Amino acid sequence: MLKPLFALPRTVWLLGLVSFFNDAASELVYPLVPIYLASVLMAGPKALGLIEGIAEATGSLLKLFSGVMSDRLQSTKHWVVGGYTVAAIARPLLAFTTAWPMVLVLRFADRVGKGLRTSPRDALLALTVTKEHRGLAFGLHRAMDNAGAVVGPLLAAWLLVEHVPLKDVFLWASLGGVIAVLLALSVKEPKRDIDTPVQRFSWSVKALPAPFKRYLLVVALFTLGNASNMFLLLRAKDMGLPEYQVPLLWALVSLTAALFSAPLSALSDKVGRVRLIVGGWVVYSVFYLLLGLNGQPSLVWPLFAFYGLFMAATEGAEKALVADMVSNEVLGTAYGWFNLTAGIMLLPASIIFGWLWQATSPLAAFGFSAGCALFAALLLRVWVSPLHFCNPSKST
């Protein structure tokens, strides 16, 4: 695998480095937000669900807009640079919040930045490589992204051990954000076919292939049970995990994903995307059931490492499958719809999860998520996969 890995275009590696530094900054902040809300701003699971749901869902609308516009303008770089810039500005400002609604505003701004960059960046990656190496390219990108997500929590844990105030920890996020923006500026726009017609602006999904539209519905179902990962960290803390170990726990998840993302995503180039995604979603379901039932802090670490395998198996393969289903001239639009669907469902997912947890029990919330994942895996295999194989993509 090493030879094709190092043969990937410079743009793939450069975008991987951008994600590495951006996620190092993001994950320095991310695992500390639930702690900050609970211990400093005195907000509970309902507020956390509302913040994450609104921020992710609303920001996801921009993923469709930026994807469609990148097709129309045949340009991706400016959207990528702009998105990373907005996020780099928003994250350190968490240090100056005094109430949870201010956290909501800044988390929303951070997700706006992600909305601006995600779909054009995914299209840029897909345009840069051939179909035969698409899974590997997305897997490498996710591996470097998750490697940054290891560095961030480790730095956060070290700062907490050194008794650095949470507000000061947030300010450290500015460093990785600046480096990510500078690297994004050096990305080159991919060459396009001069005969490719300029796409008119359209929000419609009607022109996209039927298998892809079915795939979107299945992704929506899975995401309905995929509430914010902050609930996982909150669960670990409730189970008795010391506060300073919470960032380390998330670093373990990211490390597992970083180590296995490239090989597992590359495996999807050979055995098929659907098989790998179905397997990953089954792993997700088992993890959520065990976390809902488990009350022993000693089992938290192996369980979260298990969760990292789910991320490694699915993150790259899910996005590579999008490019397999559509033609190159509508890649940005397709990724816009994919990212919008996955993001917009986080609002009901996080609200439902937070409500079930607080009104019933953690087991009810985690059991609901596990059920959604299993049903989605079944539908992907029997409802989407046969139609996809009967109607192969024309993209290259």
From TrEMBL:
PANTHER family: C-METHYLTRANSFERASE, MAJOR FACILITATOR SUPERFAMILY TRANSPORTER. Signal peptide: none annotated. The keyword Transmembrane helix applies. SUPFAM superfamilies: MFS general substrate transporter. The chain crosses the membrane at residues 79-100, 169-187, 215-236, 248-267, 274-293, 337-357, 363-384. InterPro entries: MFS, MFS_dom, MFS_trans_sf. This is Major facilitator superfamily MFS_1. Residues 11-388 form the Major facilitator superfamily (MFS) profile domain. One of its GO terms (molecular function) is transmembrane transporter activity. It comes from Methylobacter tundripaludum (strain ATCC BAA-1195 / DSM 17260 / SV96). Coiled coil: none annotated. Keywords: Membrane, Transmembrane, Transmembrane helix. It holds the Pfam family MFS_1. It comes from the Bacteria. The keyword Transmembrane applies.
